[in-house]
Write a structure and sequence with these properties.
Layout (H helix, E strand, L loop, with lengths): L2 H11 L8 H18 L2 H12 L5 H17 L6 H19 L10
Helix pairs in contact: 1-2, 2-5, 3-4, 4-5
Length: about 110
Amino acid sequence: MSGSLYTEAAAILFPMAEIATSAGFIAALRSLIDTWCDRRCLKALSRILPAYMGFNGLTEGWGDLYDALRNVQSVARDELTEHELEMVSSLIAAASRVIYGKAGESRFWQ
């Protein structure tokens, strides 16, 4: 596997792995949304779907996803598995890196 593909697969399989690309972020989020649809996790879906459907790739869109994920983490905690909560935490951290960046890092993913 190439480095970025391995990182993306690891992020989906091992939640605490760093999500390194926007494609990996969206793939992990889409996987969660599909799982929540199958289980009818309505609290989580009601928080994340507006931000997910309106995502435009700009800072505002990342901010909306960040806020929605934080809401999922606090409001829908009772309907999520431990693995899903860890993935939500990883996605929050990744969105935060995109919005706020780290010293010496590019703020834009490819």
